[in-house]
Every structure is written in C-alpha cells, then in structure tokens.
Amino acid sequence: MNFKVKKGKGVRGEITIPGDKSISHRSIMCASLAEGKSKIYGFLEGEDCLATKIAFQDMGIKFETNNDEIVVYGSGLYGLKEPKKEINLGNSGTSIRLLSGILSAQKFSSTLIGDESLSSRPMNRIIEPLSLMGANIKSQNSGRPPLEIGKSDMLNSINYDLPIASAQVKSCILFASLYSEGKTIVREKQTTRNHTEIMFKQFGVPLSIRDTDGGRDIEMYSPSNLKSTEIDIPGDFSSAAFFILAALIIPNSNLTIKNVGMNETRTALLNAFQEMGAEIDIINKTGNFEPRADLKVKFSKLKGINLDTKFVPNLIDELPAFFVAAAMSSGSTAVRNAEELRHKESDRLEAMGDVLRSLGVDFNMYHDGMDINGLDNNNELNTYKGGIIESYGDHRIAMSSAIACSLFDQESLVLNTDNVNTSFPTFLEIADQVGLNISLEEHS
Ligand code: S3P
Q: What is the Cα–Cα distance from 413 to 3, expressed in whole angstroms?
C-alpha cells in the first residue's frame, strides 16, 4: 500500500492512542511465564505484538480475548512446549531479541525467523551475552536471523557492561536471567527504556536498580516463579509522537492526546520539543508502575536546537518525527550519537535523508546523525514541497513522512506503507478523526 496525502487542516479535538508496543510484548512474555491466570488491558493489536502472542500460542499458551481484555493462562517458567515449526517473528526486533533470552534456557531447541528487514538486523549483540551465559545460540546468516537456539539445562549468570544503549539487549539478558544460577548484573552507560524492569517487579521478580553517572546498574537473581497479575498498558508515546508533531507544525492545531505513556525513559522528545519552543501541556498525570498523562499540544513556532546527546536513547524511535520538526523550525538543528538509527527497521538516517531531500530540506549527514538547516526566521515553507516519498517499508518513516506532507498544497505519495500495521494499525483512522487527509492507495 501507499499513502496518498493531501494538505491537512489544523489537527483538533481529542484522541486516544493505542497501547504501548514495548509494554505489550513484555506483558505477553511475562504473563505466559507466570503461574496461572493474568489479565492484560490495552494490548496493542499490531502485527509485531501479535507475532509475540502467536509465538507463545505455538508454545502451548492459551489466550482469551474479551473486548479490551486478554486473559493469559501462564504455564510457569518451565511450562512452555516445543514449537512444531519455526517461530516467525515478522518485522519485530523486540520479539526476536527478547524471546531469544527466554528460548536460550528451554529444554527444547527452536529456530527464529523473520521478514526481509528483520533478517538483515544485527543479532551478535544478543548472541554474545547469551553465549557468555552458556546458551547455545547461532546465526544461520553471519550474525543475522535465522537464529538456531539449542536446548539447555541451566544458564550461568553474567556481569555485563552493555556495549550499546539498547533496551532489547538489556531485556534479552534479563529474560535469560530468569533461568540463570547466581546474581546477574547488567550495566548500562546510558539509561534505556526500563519496561522489563518495571514489569518484572509487577510479576514479583526482585530486582535492584542503582543509578550511576548517566546510566543504571541492574542486579537480579532468578526467581522461583513469576506471580500472575493484571497489567494495564498506557497509550504508546512513540505513536503519540506523530500526532504531537502534526499539532506542532500544522497551523491552527490544538489537539488533546489522552492516556499517553509517560515513562521518563521514553519521553525525551517532550523535553526536546519544549526546548524548541513547543506549547505542550501535560495534564492528568496518573499511574504507579507505568505513568500516563494527557497531552495538550498547540501549533507552535519552533526554533532549532543542538539535541543533547544524552537524550538520544530516550527518543531513539521518535527521531524520524523529530527530524521533520527540525526541518519545520527556524535555524538549524544538530543530532549526534544516533548511529543506532542505522540498525532499525531501515537505516533510518539514510531513509530520513531521502525524505528530507524529496521535501527540499537542506541537511548534512554524519555517520551518527544530521544537521538540518530549517526555515528562515519567519518560518516560511516556500522552498519546501511535497512529492513522491519512499518509506523503505519502515512504519516510522512512513508516518513521519505522511505528517510532513500534510503541510503542502501539492498532493504527495508515501510509498510502501504496509508496515504501519506493525505498530499503529489505526493510524489512518485517527489521522482522519483529527482532520488530516491521508488515504490508502493500492500498489499499481
Ligand atoms: C525497544 C527498544 C529499542 C526500540 C524498539 C523497541 C524495546 O530498540 O528502538 O523500537 O521494546 O525494547 P533497541 O534496543 O535496539 O535500541
């Protein structure tokens, strides 16, 4: 599919964003490994999270869905059954990396595969620590999926300094540590999203977490079991980001986004936007384990900034949207320390470079970021234009481009947008609800 994008009016009204993708994956994993019946509310029915759910179904876990509630009949840490076939995780990096931690400790072997994009993503980052723990995990494709995981008895604990800021690598080790002997210590130099740590606490797994200079040390022992519980998943901040962007850059916008996840390891985009002059009010903040709030966002004249490099891991998924905001700001914006963008569903630095070039935006590319030269002091868009944009089959590139194209009189086409269904299947419905003009066009 492609998106056909016409000029949008200001985005207005009140919307609710679907559930958080990272938390949805973890809720299925923890509830499946818990003893007995857990309930999940607000699960994201996107293709990535469904791939995780189907993987556990294929390992014998039973689920019942009633409206917004999923009941999971967990089979305990040692109750998974050998899958009858390869486990296909589609486009989902979180599924393959976190599941590898669990499967490395099972008494059966398994093979994990994915689509073309997932099959080109680096897995040595998890193969290395899992092998140190005694796992028998191999890539069939020079460090990329398919992954072959052999059966195992008990894993060793490790003391591991994360070489890259990655919540998927950290979480893979923590899931494997549910099955390891002795104390595991994972050290991160820069704090990454902490949903696994929070959810382990909800399922009764004791963890100790210590703040260090800019990062965190996490220590845990394998528990005797995970205690079933109820998980209420807030809206996905990363999905909300596209509508925050729309409200900030499209004149006459005034939008309320309800029930957005406000975990501080995810919301650095708000700080960055506020530093650029964005009018965003955070109201009705609630929630114990995973906080949430409503956001009121108004059209704002943004100005460029040097993005603080320490923010980067906490807005890594929002950088495509941030690049669009930078292009629509006066002056220039610099982003560095973002080389990880090259290892996402696409090389997001190159992909966004292509998008910006198509829109007529001036930028300089670096191996780990970009300088984007935005608008003149009057924030006039006159040198920019819509057009035909390639999204490289990457959901976040597709949605960021569609919002950018909503600014132009000329009709635009964003190509290859099917993968929006991996994280935000209701994107078009919500876009329509707020007054944007984005529709589907079949591939010709
Ligand atoms: C995720 C971690 C991040 C993020 C991804 C989801 C997670 O990946 O980009 O969308 O749920 O743990 P990395 O760990 O590769 O940074």
A: 6
Average confidence (pLDDT) over 262-274: 98
Give the HSE-up count for residue 113: Cα atoms under 13 Å, Cβ half-sphere: 7
- Measured in degrees and rounded to the nearest 5, phi and psi for residue 147 equal -110, 135
Model confidence pLDDT, tens digit, residues 316-333: 999 999 999 999 999 999
Residue 286, amino acid: T
CA of 442 to the centre of ligand 1 (A): 30
* pTM summary value: 0.98
DSSP 17: P
Give Cβ neighbours of residue 134 (< 8 Å, ≥ 6 apart). 152, 154, 155, 156
Determine whether 371 is an active site residue: no
Which DSSP string corresponds to 334-345? Answer: EE-S-GGGGGSS
Minimum-distance ligand 1 atom for the alpha carbon of 168: 14
- 282 and 262 Cβ atoms separated by less than 8 Å: yes
Q: Quick: pLDDT tens for 13-54.
A: 999 999 999 999 999 999 999 999 999 999 999 999 999 999
